[in-house]
Amino acid sequence: LLLLFFTWLWLLVPVFSEAQQVRVLSDGIEFQGDLGSTQRKTIILQNETNQVKTYLLKTLRGNIGSSQSVKICIGEQCFDPKKELAKIKLTLGPGELLTDLYLDFNMGIASTRGSFDMTFVNESNLRDQFVVEARYEVDDPAVKVDEFDYKDIVLSDVYPNPSVRIAQFDYTIKNQSANARIAINSFIGNPVADYALDPERNVLVINVSDFTPGIYFYTLFLNNKNIVTKKLVVKK
Questions:
Q1: Would you say 135 and 71 are in contact if contact means Cβ atoms under 8 Å apart?
Q2: Sequence-distant (≥ 6) Cβ neighbours of residue 89 within 8 angstroms
Q3: Which residues have a Cβ under 8 Å from the Cβ of 190 and sit 6 or more positions away?
Q4: Which strands, in side-by-side order, build the sheet including 153-156?
Q5: Residue from 112, 120, 110, 111 nearest 61 by CA
Q6: Average pLDDT over every residue of 215-227
Q7: Which CATH number fits domain 147-234: 3.30.300.30, 2.40.10.120, 2.60.40.1930, 3.30.70.120?
Q8: Residue 31, Cβ neighbours under 10 Å: how many?
Q9: Long-range contacts at 141-147 (CB < 8 A, ≥ 24 apart)
Q10: What are the backbone angles phi and psi of residue 101, rounded to the nearest 5°?
Q11: Does residue 4 carry a pLDDT above 80?
Q12: End-to-end CA gap in the chain
């Protein structure tokens, strides 16, 4: 049994040694803008080996809306991954920091949000791969959400309201030491959920699909002090 264990461990050594050969330094790419606009984000990669590495785009997965589109640009040359998947190839020299890889995202003509990811694989070793993740949110400038500027935080009204599946707050914490959270209670005051607001982020997305349809109240607390309470309507 001991011999079998060491044989199994020896076979796994190549897998462990190939981990993190290329690191994605631009983690969590986010696109947020108005209808019809286009944004470009840089994908920064680091080859952490002393070998030349060539990667092909294997898959593009996720929920990109029917009116949204994404292109992958290497330098000045751009590709549509839905039509030109096989043409997208990256070569990184030993220890190279790649900074001329971009994502161009067209916001389209419909307000929506979603996410997608792209898997790149080494053309000579399919176990050697890395993933680039991105999310997007498209807003209609004609539909503005009210924002309220408090001493330590700027917080939007919840939207959409009524909500069916997702309810969202936009916020900016001005005082990084402030403890901010959103508490949700039922119409009769029973606690339903409580969410801490991360000062490193600016969006709180709540899945309300499991909430019973009806009227709820959400309260902003700063350092455990009740700042404001407003109504949230959930529908099916």
A1: no
A2: 54, 55, 56, 57, 123
A3: none
A4: 147-149, 153-156, 166-173, 203-207
A5: 120
A6: 93
A7: 2.60.40.1930
A8: 22
A9: 141/34, 141/35, 143/111, 145/170
A10: -110, 130
A11: no
A12: 57
pTM > 0.70: yes or no: no
Q: Note whether 21-139 and 147-234 share their fold.
A: yes
Greater confidence (72 vs 143) lies with: 72
Average pLDDT over residues 94-99: 94
Which pLDDT does position 146 carry in this prediction? 64
- The per-residue pLDDT for 145 is 62
Secondary structure of 177-222 as H, E, C letters: CCCEEEEEEECCCCEEEEEECCCCCCEEEEECCCCCCEEEEEEEEE
Give the residue extent of every domain in the chain: 21-139, 147-234
pLDDT digits (tens, 9 = 90+) for 197-219: 999 888 999 999 889 999 999 99
Can you give the pLDDT at residue 8?
Answer: 47
Q: Which fold has domain 21-139?
A: Immunoglobulin-like (2.60.40)
Predicted confidence at residue 12, as pLDDT, reads: 45
